[in-house]
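Figure 2 data, in text form.
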Amino acid sequence: MKYTSDSDRPGRAYTFDRLAAAVLDARGTVMRWSTTAQDLTGFGSEEVCGRPVLELVAEVPEELQRVTRMPDSGRVRLWRKDGDTVEVTFQTAKLEDPADFLVVAAPAHDVADHLDETALLRALSTQDRITIALHDTDLTIMQTSGTPGTVYGCAIRPGTRLCDVISTEDAESIQTVLRQVLETGVPAARINQQVSWRLDPGRRRALSLSAFRLENAQGRPTGVAALYLDETDHVRARRHLDLTREVAERVGCSLDTARTAQDLADVLVPALGDLATVDLAQSVFDGEEPPKRLGGGDLRLHHAALAPASAVWAARTQHGNLIPPFPDNPFLRSFQHGRTFVISAEEYRDVLGDPQLTDFHVPPGFHSVMVAPLHARGLTLGAIAVWRCGRSASFDEDEVELMTQIASRGALAIDNARRYTREHRAAAALQQRLLPPATTETPAAQTAGVYRPAAGGAEISGDWYDAIALPSLRLALVAGDVVGHGITASATMGRLRAAIQTLADLELEPDELLARIADLVQRLASEAPPGDNDIVGATCLYAVYDPITRHCAMASAGHPPPVLVRPDGTTELVGISPGPPLALSGIPYETTIIELEPASVLALYTDGLVEQGEKGSDDGLRRLTDMLAAMCRPDRALDEAARALLADLVDTEPRDDATLLLARTRAVPAENTAQWEIPDDPAAVSLAREWTARQLARWDLEDLLFDTALIVSELVTNAIRYGRAPAELRLICHDVLVCEVTDSSSTQPRLRRARTTDEGGRGLFLVAQLAGRWGCRHGQNRKTVWSEQPIEHAHCDVVRR
């Protein structure tokens, strides 16, 4: 092999089995010259032997000029036959003849590389987390740097096979990689392997395997060099970090207590154990704070979650099962003071003592358990337990610390769900108390109302409906939607509903009633805390149906229009002029009057019923109209139709509340009403009594004649004396007997108690004593004073059909 300069190096590094060698005598004369020396310098033995070696040295170092013998080692630059030089490192050794020396030399850069490689190998072989193993072609371990405390954990003798050190399954997996490297020559890099030691199956390690093929000078495979990097700590830290992140992402996404407990159990299996259970105090499910107990006794824990779901454990498969009491013991005390503990299954059995308790608390086939309290805001909400079985190792201190952190985060999520449950139940109870009965039966109509809160029941809002019985057999229908959710919205809804009922009793026209309610909403907004007044508002539709005239008067404050379903099944979206929402006052509302046939269905609703998912309100309104026509048949119960409509139209977890009120109208036949025009003459009072007597006789109500005659006398007298013509008297027979006197005066009658010497003032007082109830309503340029008397026996059968 010829070199032309120091830079001319073979593709493969110069090896010490190719060292240049020469034999020198005591004077430094070359006696022998190897072929490798000829390869190095280009000079043959015949050109060198018999000549002083210093003639080959291009630059004789000063230290060599002063010595009288060859130094043991050194570094010089030699001449090459081609006139160039090569720097070599040499070493001398005495031979059997004391006068002769053996000198071996190699290019200096190759020696330096070899020294660096040697230092690198020495450093690698002393690393605790790194093991270098040389395998022959049979994959037998010929040499290893493994010592106790490194990857293998024990000294490995030459001739050992992997299956002698690690489990057979893991050994086969590694040998598959090594065999592929040996056959193909393609190195393997950073292949992750999980292994367990044959002598200690519970000690499982994570290794990163890199391997390359070994070859001789001829390029033939002689074995495989494997580099094993122990990444157990790194993998564990990464797994713990991933588990912590997964807990943060998954646990607490739901505000349902049981769902949160199940999410907590699910993330722990198989990341931290083979089986996980979560037990909670019963009060937590109810949204209440758990009792504070120390020592043994009944903790009143109930089973909440089990993972994996396929686990067969009869005592734990039923959600809500009561956990039997624990005996007092140090582990229980540790748990109640907020500490996580680890205990073996055998120790657990000894602590429990009772075989029945053991069957409940200790799953079969498991060897250890880690129990952590779910402790949040000074309350112990329950417990979480993680079990391990089979070849898995026992829990270590790092896992105990991790479990404590997870339990703390899980406890906060469960406590948030508990607090939400409490607020939700309070809001639901308030909402339930504020809403009217689901169905009503009145002479004017049969009604059925349904309500579904947002998010599948997770959010209570201020949507409401109402059916208010008014005097003279009339009926007020209301649907409203308050801005916002929660108790605040429910409270606002309650105030508005009470106000509307009060104003409805005053028998105001729909437009005037909404105007007054708008003023109330403005006052509520002014009373709200700063920053919240802009979220106080509502929409409302108010309608009044009169079964005698069959007219329905309605007004809207920014609310969707009602849908009318006629008896023949045809539908119509009622054309109504919507006014502004109730948050705005000072803008007038407009009353719309329509005529309804008997057995018609009027549907009032909130926008949550028609705005579902990605569909717009127009799409939802068409669906509502079509389904109303299909379901509101005369032969179908109204409440059943309302429930079916809500189920079909509203998503499982709607984004907004949905309310629907259906009213199937009725009509009072003409023969059940009688009307008489009152002459503007005081003598008309006696004529009115006579007319009333004849009419009550027709209705077989003579038993009410005395009281009714007195009421008619007083009301007609007041109309003639204080009112203005024209005036009229109307009687209505139904479940009650209604007496109405209407005149063209707007003067409000006033009830007062007359003194002994007063000649008048007793009329309305007498009416109030004789009638079940009485009142006055105002219309355009007129007023009507009315009274109602209960009918105790069945009359007016035509009305009650």
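Caption note: The mean pLDDT is 81.
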